[in-house]
Amino acid sequence: MAQPMNLKPFYLGFAALAVVGAAAIWWARGGGTTPVEVDPVPVNASSFAGYVLGSDSAAVEIIEYADFGCGACAQFAVLAGADIKSRLVEAGRVRIRFRDFAIPSHPSSPDAHLAAACAGEQGQFFAMHDQLFFGQRDWTRQRRPDRQFRDYAEAIRLDMSRYDDCVRDRRHMGRIDAAKQEGLAVGVSSTPSFVIGGLLVVGALPYDSVVALVERAEGAATR
Q1: 18 to 10, 14, 25, 32, 204: CA distances (angstroms)
Q2: What is the pTM of this model?
Q3: 60-66 and 94-100: which strand pairing?
């Protein structure tokens, strides 16, 4: 007599797929946390206001607090970043203001932020930003990723003498820490976090969620 088939593994597998599918739907429809209204981002007259990409005349500003060693930050940069730049920033609807928020659990992050700041001295912050996020799996596995950062600097054609001097002097570390303190003052506690139209939202937002927040901010600006 044939033994009855054990369907338990099938149902367990089906349940797992259902959970994964529900998570994917949740992420595609919004992801992140419920937006929280916050006061304007505090910037002291003497502080560095971040790295800006886009037109000063854009109606909406996206302030991003991110850590170069943060996996979710890299996910946002890789999956949504290109669309945001090409469809929102280049269209003149949005400007992005990036602020450093290095997290202690990512031990090489401060040096990555320093490398980006040194590239910023030569007007290449966002070029280094892309190198660091797209290459994150490589440099985060190294005990001393300085060589990798230098390779990125060469790839984006920095003046290497100026870059090396900047890294050696660690001249931007105070500014990097100050940006984090300003983020903490707003309520940022994890990365990536975004302030869009006075709303703070946390998580690797998909493009559609960013658009929804931008459209809300555009609507508020016209009232």
Answers
A1: 12, 6, 10, 20, 22
A2: 0.81
A3: parallel
